[in-house]
Fold this sequence. Notes:
The complex is a heterotrimer. Chain B has six helices and eleven strands. By secondary structure, chain B is α/β, with parallel strands linked by helices. Chain B has one domain (2-227): Rossmann fold (3-Layer(aba) Sandwich). In chain B, 39% of the residues are buried. The longest helix of chain C has 19 residues, at 317-335.
Amino acid sequence: MRIxxxxxxxxxxxxxxxxxxxxxxxxERRRAEKLCLACPAGLYSLDGDGRLLFSHLGCLECGTCRLxxxxxxxxxxxxxxCDFGVQYRNS
Amino acid sequence: xxxxxxxKNTPDFESLRLQPGxxxxxxxxxxxxxxxxxxxxxxxxxxxxxAPGSEVIALTAAGAAADSTKQRKAILSRGPDRLVVVKDxxxxxxxxxxTASALAAAIxxxxxxxxxxxxxxxxxxxxxQVGCMVGALLGxxxxxxVSELGLDGxxxxxxxxxxxxxxxxxxxxxxxxxxxxxxNRPRIPSMKDILGAGKKGVEVIDCAGLAxxxxxxxxxxxxxxxxxxxxxxxxxxxxxxxEALALEIRRQM
Amino acid sequence: xxxxxxxxxxxxxxxxxxxxxxxxxxxxxxVAVVERGERCGCKNMTGGRLYGHSLKRLIPDYEQRAPLERxxxxxxxxxxxxxxxxxxxxxxxxxxxxxxxxxSVVRAKFDDWLARExxxxxxxxxxxxxxxxxxxxxxxxxxxxxxxxSLEADVVILADGANSLLGQKLGLVKPLQxxxxxVGAKEVIRLGRGTIEERFSLSGGEGCAWMFVGxxxxxxxxxxxLYTNEDSVAVGIVATVSDVGYSGKSVAGxxxxxxxSPLIAPLIEGGELCEYSAHLVPEGGLxxxxxxxxxxxxxxxxxxxxxxxxxxxxxxxxxxIESGRLAAETYIELAARHDFRPEALRLYRKKLExxxxxxxxxxxxxxxxxxxxxxxxxxxxxxAEDVMKAMFTxxxxxxxxxxxxxxxxxxxxxxxxxxxDMLRLLTxx
Lengths: 91, 253, 429
């Protein structure tokens, strides 16, 4: 089963604005790859130029990327405001 | 102006368990304020701002949900000055007429009400009946599908957006209005709003056994068969992919 | 009720926060709990199991009141290779007795219940609000700030979870280290009560807890888990963040491989995935534990890294509940003197030291290091397989006795390596 389909089973209260912001520029390859592998929602990917792509839609707010990329690949990381974001019912 | 905003606590519809052909299972669904009702509350708050000195009263007819402090706080944190709850076990799963009768009776009891607001429908049954029925029971002017509300002197200005036309009215009060979900964006309560909600008054009208008789007999409630999905995935960020997607949609239509 | 000024503000409505709020409210202390989830528990995830002893101390009849999934009476540990698994199973009716039963739980239900219990004692819950910052004056934590609003109290209890942004802002929690955290990801698969009891050989209401070492994390540090809920099964993996990528697979990919492996797939066949979730787990033990208190502030639960992973036992919620209760008791004792300086709040640490929380964390302080060696995850499952293969293979060729066969397997592992790995494991867990 694809991760997108799995995330489709989890409930979210969506806010368009992202609570995580990537730093500009091309990240160090190995570090960027680790971010891609570590995000349990698979929200990080690399484009052809080695730039990091990220979408906050489907973010499970676990903080793993913050641990790995804070102050380097990520320049802002906060929990979503108010009660936006993931809404677990069965976990 | 004295404004009553009606709402209903329903099982959170995103937590329903649906099996095609079976009754929706609400056992795991927590209570929530009906999403369309939030529009009614917000509309009431915005109107109240236009008429200083107004009072906004939230009103619901509820069974088990009547006692939930969490649900009371949730509605009051959206702005209303106080809450009136008509309580009877019969209101859980009641039909539109039973609910409307209870609300109309409560509105008369509150007294001096100028305007009653409803959302476009309840989040569970979505019959879109209760607003109209309350208007009829009270003998007040009643309009639904209202997408804009304003005040002009002592009268209400109303815009209805219908499929083939839009209408504008000037209404004298009292009146019952059902608003659309596009009329506003319900506010998100702040910490102070929630704190303030804990201090507001709640009046419970216990009407055990006094609920009106049902007019509708429910024979069955079944989840529909899920529509077959094409399952085609377009995963790209290029313009060509967007064109391909548009082409595919056109072909399927 | 007037609610403008509180005695205590608790940040976070998980087990630690609600246990603190429950204890405080019960003693007549004015307490507010600020939780960003619309409902308590909706941002939280557990592998699956609550050891109930500390909750029993808080709410003696919790077993009749709380939404518990299944009472765990069957424990399994499996060492998994690509080809199969060596498993140990222990089952015992009424495991844990009256005082120490453990239960699988679903946090969205459990945390909400505990919050309602605290609310019934008089705690004021503020849900749907993210606390952005702490109000600090002259070095003392005086309250919290959220959006435009602020709220003041004598003491703030931080129970804001594994990734405690507030604890880090205060400097009590040091910048998080990838080697001290694991990322957990899990799937909850609905199967139906009967099917679960059939497939796991359980009687009504009884449940199974299952740990996996080796292949589920591709040999990387971490493990797999499975817990039976009432009508669903929770299957997941936990992978040490610094070790992610060891196998070249993503966390999501590892979990997907695990649920579709021959070990798990038949057990969840026909089930319906109803949720996918992920969370951080602080696994560094005592060594990573932050400063537990400051001027007007105390840290509880995951925010204070109160998690113990011994491989066969994984605990967090029971420590969280106890720490919340003890933080509350600390406040209650100090309230008369109205002294919340660090010198006074040291009482919280003292209470933790004499409770099971710090005693047991100290006893098992070596566990994180033992599990920081890859041998456990790569070599041990293979050794177990080699020994079992030797035992259960009859080919008429290898005629040696069992001791010789076992020795051969150990030799393949490397005697020195084996001795080191075993020693480290045994002394720490």
